Amino acid sequence: MDSKLVNAVLLSALAGLATTIGSVIGIFVRHPSKAFMAFTLGFAAGVMVHVSYVELLGAAIQDIGFGWAHVAFFGGMGTMFLIDMAIPHDWGAEHYEGPGDPAKRKAVMRTGLLVALGIAIHNFPEGLVTFTGALKNMDLGIALAVAVGIHNIPEGMAVSVPIYAATGSRKKAFLWSFLSGISEPLGALLGALILAPFLSKTVLGVCLGGVGGIMVFISLDELVPAARQYEREHTAIVGVVVGMMVMAVSLWAMGMSAG
Q1: Does pLDDT of 70 surpass 90?
Q2: Is there a domain that residue 258 lies in?
Q3: Cys-Cys crosslink for 173: which of 97, 160, 168, 184, Cβ 3.0 to 4.6 Å?
Q4: From the CA atom positions of the chain, what is the Rg in Å?
């Protein structure tokens, strides 16, 4: 595996393991402010939507044409929709308080493990997001890793809080949160093994379009609704706009464009 593929997988690993940051917050902070959560989730959504349309879809259109790029784009959205329908996951687990009896502890532990499983499965295709972007351009891969990493933080909280509440063990809470994030670099690694022998402008264009669709779906279906749950005076939409602005300035500063 050449250095470009290795770096792309490593970036995906860093993005996936951002769940451990959420785990630490969930274990030690327990209840970050609503304004922080609304802004952070909105910010991640803004970054992901902007880069999906400006960079990923634009690059796919150049590589494989307008029509096929959009087929790939909506195919990515459809893939995430089917995963969501088959295995839904809920960040609401982060609201659990410590249970008072063994039966409740068992129920909360089960919830935490199911959330961990759901997030792990959702993270698998997300591993392709950073990986594919990094194959196109390493600066784009870094930007995507930051966006995906930010959105993984509350997922880490959703795993760690119920497990910590059920077991009282910070180690177990951290471990399960870590494992839920591992699926992301596994997705990137599988993508590397599958794509490497067939990598071409056409294959990369299809992947970029599909990844753009995946990111837009995640943003609109998960991040924005989750941010609105913490809404205070339009904090979520402010986060979205700021995220878009930051990504626009970043891409401009790096001299990047779909061309």
Answers
A1: yes
A2: no
A3: 160
A4: 18
Best CA proximity match to 46, nearest among 235, 238, 212: 238
CA distances from residue 18 to 25, 148, 154, 167, 190 in whole angstroms, order as listed: 11, 8, 9, 23, 20
Is 70 within the bounds of a domain? yes
Alpha-carbon span 42 to 226, nearest angstrom: 9
Smallest Cα–Cα separation from 125: which of 82, 62, 61?
Answer: 82
Q: What is the number of helices (H) and of strands (E) in the chain?
A: 11, 0
> What are the structure tokens assigned to 230, written together?
């913490």
In a domain, 18, yes or no: yes
Residue 216 lies in a domain: yes
Closest CA to 126 of 202, 186, 43: 186
Tell me the residue range of the domain where 197 lies: 3-253
DSSP state of 1: -
- The model's pLDDT over 77-117, given as tens digits with 9 standing for 90+, comes to 998 898 878 866 555 434 444 445 566 566 657 656 766 76
Distance between CA atoms of residues 168 and 108, nearest Å: 12
Q: What is the DSSP string of 50-82?
A: HHIIIIIIHHHHHHH-HHHHHHHHHHHHHHHHH
Domain count, the chain: 1
